[in-house]
């Protein structure tokens, strides 16, 4: 390990967490400052590589897509992508987030949406219901869970896949109240009382032999793996969860575990709103200054606060007060990991120019920009060793 460069990262979303992880793995020291939690608790934590083509049709082989259609020569390099995904899988395993991923041969897998459709993704936490070939399923209905109606999901699933979808309904436990949402269920199922209730209720049911068992994503926050193991013993078939609408239990699990891992590796986490950033320091709204050898912005897109759209349509980075492009530019930032006008390294959605909502490449956006910046910075920070 090197002597440890000091880096200030602004932003606590997945891009900031991944950048911080690479730094601490290579001997760096990180101060992370953020005014909010980032987007992870808003989504399930399944990382898309490239899920849809320009025609909006699902993509089976994302490596082939990038080889053919990557905007930059480096983005066509299959081996480079593969190394980066391997790196993420190894990191998450260390963090305590086991994953489903088809690294070899490198194909997308199918996960279920809360509406019962199947959609492709590349890497997902192992608790997700994820499959190479959809087949018959049993869908478990939790009382009063507005985000996930098993009967409606089963109708859509059968229509979309042509496979059978049965439903099993659970009766409410005694602490249950009208209006419980996914997080209420998840905290309850982290408790001994909740686990006993669920395992008892599942034991009392008959389970069809040939169908995977699908739960809404409510099976605890910190104890999910042990609960899944116990459920698997009862139902004796593949099981998994469907990520629900925000706030997402899956994303919350990911961010809690990842931040904990970083904290016991020395991360300093500061809560605060940054009003100005430049080369080696940031200024917070309360007047405090944080210094480092470098500052990296992981401040997210328009939703995260990292990009601001002015009434004339121009897109600005408010921390560097630089124009990043216009809302009409389809290619803002494709090349980039540096806010060229200010010289600041930026990662994640702040880079702009990607359209994860339409193209299904949100995970690729994070992975690509973080590794590009990391590689370019280690060359200028001899105290951080290159991996
Ligand atoms: C609803 C939703 C669903 C998604 N679904 C998927 C999916 O299915 N698959 C997939 O791969 N990706 C998905 N994504 C991920 C998305 O496409 C992006 O890749 C991801 O959100 C980018 O994260 P980020 O770390 O760049 O920014 P963010 O997560 O937005 O983090 C920004 C951070 O910067 C901080 N910040 C911003 N400005 C300041 C400031 N001035 N001072 C201090 N802190 C500041 C914020 O507090 C926050 O901590 C989803 C995202 C959302 C929101």
Overview of the structural elements:
- The chain is α/β, with parallel strands linked by helices and 387 residues long.
- Helices cover 30% and strands 21% of the residues.
- It has 2 domains: 6-96 and 253-378, FAD/NAD(P)-binding domain (3-Layer(bba) Sandwich), CATH 3.50.50.60; 129-242, Rossmann fold, CATH 3.40.50.
- The chain contains 10 helices and 21 strands.
- The protein has a 4-stranded parallel sheet with strand order 12-2-1-16, with helices on one face. Strands 9-8-10-11 form a 4-stranded parallel sheet, sandwiched between helices. It has a 3-stranded antiparallel sheet with strand order 5-4-7.
- Bound molecules: flavin-adenine dinucleotide.
- Flavin-adenine dinucleotide is lined by residues 10-16, 33-36, 38-39, 42-43, 46-48, 246, 273-274, 298-300, 303-306, 319, 348-349, 356, 362-363, 365-366.
Rounded to the nearest angstrom, the distance between the terminal CA atoms is 10 Å
What is the strand arrangement across the widest sheet? 12-2-1-16
Total count of helical runs of at least 4 residues: 10
- Tell me the structural class: alpha/beta
